[in-house]
Design goal:
It is an enzyme of class 3 (hydrolase). Pfam families: Cas_Cas1. The protein has helices at about 55-65, 90-100, 100-130, 135-150, 160-175, 200-225, 245-265, 285-300, 320-330, and strands spanning about 1-5, 5-10, 15-20, 25-30, 30-35, 45, 50, 65-70, 75-80, 275, 285, 305, 315. The chain has about 350 residues and is an alpha/beta fold. A 5-stranded mixed beta sheet has the order 1-2-6-8-9, with helices on both faces. Strand 4 (about 25-30) and strand 5 (about 30-35) form a beta hairpin.
Length: about 350
Amino acid sequence: MTVLQNTLYITTPDAYLRLEGETVCVMIEDEKRLQVPLHYLSAFVLFDHVMLSPALLGRCAEDGRSVVWLSRSGRFQARMEGPVSGNILLRQAQYRAADDNAQTLNIARAVVAGKLRNSRQLLLRGARETENAEEKDALVRVVKVLANQIRKIPSASDLDALRGFEGDAARMYFEVLPLVMKAQVRMDFPFDSRNRRPPRDRFNALISFLYALVLSDCRAALESVGLDPQLGFLHAVRPGRPALALDLLEEFRAPLADRLALTLINRGQLQARDFDEREGGAVLLNDAGRKTVIAAYQTRKQESIVHPLLQQNSLIGLLPHLQARLLARYLRQDVKHYVPYLHR
């Protein structure tokens, strides 16, 4: 269990959280392991069969404190919020845009362009840092292909064509991503393709977990500005699917999740012992591994960066909120285009 940035993360299975006066008590096997003032906490993130008392749930709903449930692997399962808030006029603009094929395609194009450009930047950095000439050539080759895919985006006449460009680019990106790992760690982190539900190797388990963390932040950012996280543009709308949060996630996969995953592996902060293999071939982070990743992710979010469009210093953790506000400005027609986050 960890308290970071006023968010309480509980990673111990079968923990029980209850309200005791104005404090939250974390009980594990009938033993009190942690007690935190309730006013200090703004959110709970719970992994793998963590329970809350009815009194605590009711208080969180009353105060507008969010509770997020994630699976053991970090996959989003549910979120509890208080009463729906936000600007109804903004949501109406979002709904109108979703019914307008041209606007939907324009936003989706921007999202895909941002994703591919950020993926390309990660591979470029890997090409600069490697000392292996063959691996450098392979990385540069895919960098050029991604640049060509980005140039094709304006020609996508519909969402299916656009998703085709994105899918082809993602496949090639993941084919060479292992080359950004140091050679000495590749045996412990073999990776040849993206797989999930469940992940079948350690690297897929790691990035799936990080994607879930970033997705939770993207969803919170959209809700904070009054947008409906369920109604997306690139991702199809399905019951219970946070399609707009998934759209926003695309811009941050490479710079926030993939880059951090590679850093943790290359620096030896995560090793094979931080993962468990399950029957059927599933691979998941264990308790120690999840704690390491969560701590590293929160530390990364506290680093400062200059936003490429706004030209202002911002904490990395606030980037999804800035992009959500930029999207809201576009939907309100305050600006002509939605500009995705472009990592330098």
